[in-house]
Each structure stands twice: as structure tokens, then as C-alpha cells.
Write a structure and sequence with these properties.
It contains 13 helices and five strands. It is mainly α. A three-stranded antiparallel sheet has the order 3-5-4, covered by helices on one side. Helix 6 packs across helix 7 and helix 12 packs antiparallel against helix 13.
């Protein structure tokens, strides 16, 4: 199941133009709201469903509690029930969480897809995730040292963040399972990948590096966060707290004080400075 244009049309291009994995049926959740696409899946792609053509044509949004069940959700429920887990079902990682919540089946992460099941045993299938991430080259989006290629356009830069998120999940999962040597290796690759690309992941990656005891790598993330968004208070406060945690409270205090001098009307910053000084 896919979300929109950018995670659907590339798959169709691979199937139609390149002849790659024509056995996979791509269910675009937006198109599933149209009767013509649903009937195409039923008659041309052999997707199992118990809905008749007349029932498909009559599908309308249904109010169920506080949730509005669009035709797409009703079709997906029917397909999953009719399939009875005979063929595997996957969410693309790009599928919005609200869709997965309404569909209601648990899933486990294996790469750029999540495997849907009646009862997911784990949120992350580590062996599958490792195999899928390690089996491919990323030369088209990353340099040999894993830094992002400069020629990536705006859309590709957004899509590449999916890879970065997966490597972050992998590093964190390895750390939680006490596989610290491999976790550290993935973390180092990750910090190169995130450079000037996925600012929203800089803080959690820095936090993970700190937990691993990799203070220099953590500091690199926090510095990058501050430099990329100098007017973002959370960034400078996170960096200052890091300085405090590694025994450099005075340096953290200077960072905050300097930032507040440049942003004197930020009440959150002023209040945070007080707690920073008082708390030990």
C-alpha cells in the first residue's frame, strides 16, 4: 500500500518499463477511493475481494464512531479478509500513520516497507532490516563516504530522508539489543548521511550518540543542528544541555546567554535559562 505519487509511480515504472516484479500489486490509497481503480485491481490484477462491481460503485464514506471510513479503507479491509493472509501484505514506509491506524492491522519494519500481519511479533524485524539495508548500493544518492550527493534536487532530498530514518532505527535497535560494535558503525555512517539533509533527525541521532558514549559524534550533531537553524531555540538548548551533561555547564550557560542576547523577547528561552542554572 502506497501513499501518493512519489511512492507509486516509480514502482509502476519499474514494473511496466523494466519488467521488475510484476507479481507485486501496488495499492495506492488515494486511487482506492475510485471505483474504476478498484475494479481494475479486481478484474485485471486478480486482487482477491468479495465486493461485487455494484457494491464497489455504491461505496461511500461511512461514519464509525469518531472515524470517517473512506471507500479506500473499506476496500482494504475487504481485500485483507478475502486474501486471508495467503499473499503477504505490506505498507510502504511513506504511508501516513493515520491510514495505518484506521486500517488497524499491526506491522513490523523490514526496510522501506512494513510487513502487515494479524499479530506482529516485533515492531522491527532486525535481521530483515539489516539484509534490506546492507544489500543495496546508494551511489545515486550518497557519495562513497556516505555524505549526500550535491546534485540531489529538493524532492530527492526529501525522499532520501527515508533511508536516513531507517539507518537511525537500525542503529538504535542494535544498541537496545546490546550489539554495540555494529551500532557504533551504523551511527558513524548515519552522521555522514544526515549532513545538511535531515535536520529533524539531528537531535535524536545526537541523543543516541550520547547514550552510546560517543560524545564527539553527539556534539557534531548538536552543532550541526544549531548552525542549520540558528533561530531555533530547542536546538541551542539541546546543545547547552549536552554541554552540561558532560561536565561543561559554564560553556552551556554561555551558549544560552549569547542566544538570549540575540533573542531577548523569547520568554521560553529566559525561563529555560533559569532552570538551567538552578537544576543540577
Amino acid at each position: 500500500m502506497t501513499n501518493g505519487d512519489n511512492d507509486t509511480f516509480p514502482l509502476w515504472w519499474l514494473q511496466v518499463k523494466m519488467g521488475f516484479r510484476p507479481d507485486v500489486v501496488v495499492l495506492n490509497i488515494s486511487l482506492l477511493n475510485t471505483s474504476c481503480f478498484v475494479k481494475y485491481l479486481k478484474h485485471k490484477k486478480g486482487v482477491p475481494m468479495t465486493l461485487s462491481d455494484e457494491e464497489i460503485d455504491k461505496l461511500r464514506p461511512i461514519k464509525k464512531g469518531d472515524t470517517l471510513l473512506l471507500p479506500a479503507y473499506q476496500v482494504i479491509q475487504n481485500i485483507i479478509e478475502a486474501n486471508d493472509w495467503q499473499r503477504p501484505v505490506y505498507y510502504a514506509v511513506t504511508l501516513a500513520k493515520r491510514h495505518k491506524d484506521i486500517i488497524g492491522y499491526p506491522s513490523s519494519l523490514i526496510g522501506l516497507a512494513e510487513k502487515v500481519s494479524e499479530h506482529a511479533e516485533a515492531k522491527v524485524e532486525l535481521d530483515e532490516l539489516k539484509k534490506n539495508l546492507y544489500s543495496y548500493k546508494y551511489d545515486h544518492v550518497f557519495n562513497r563516504n556516505f555524505t549526500p550527493r550535491k546534485e540531489l534536487d529538493c524532492m530527492l532530498r526529501k525522499l532520501v530522508q527515508n533511508y536516513i530514518s531507517l539507518f537511525y532505527i537500525l542503529a538504535n535497535e542494535l544498541y537496545l539489543r546490546n550489539e554495540k560494535t555494529e551500532a557504533k558503525s551504523v551511527l558513524k555512517r548515519l552522521i555522514c548521511m544526515v549532513e545538511n539533509l535531515a535536520f529533524n533527525l539531528l537531535e535524536p541521532i545526537g541523543d543516541l550518540a550520547y547514550k552510546m558514549g560517543e560524545y564527539s559524534l553527539a556534539e557534531k550533531c548538536y552543532k550541526n543542528l544549531v548552525n542549520s537553524q540558528p533561530h531555533y531555540f530547542r536546538g541551542i538548548y539541546t546543545y547547552a544541555k549536552f554541554k552540561k551533561r558532560i561536565g561543561q555547564k559554564e560553556k552551556g550557560l554561555k551558549l544560552l546567554t549569547r542566544w538570549i542576547e540575540q533573542h531577548p523577547y523569547n520568554k521560553e528561552a529566559v525561563d529555560s535559562l533559569k532552570s538551567f542554572v538552578e537544576d543540577d
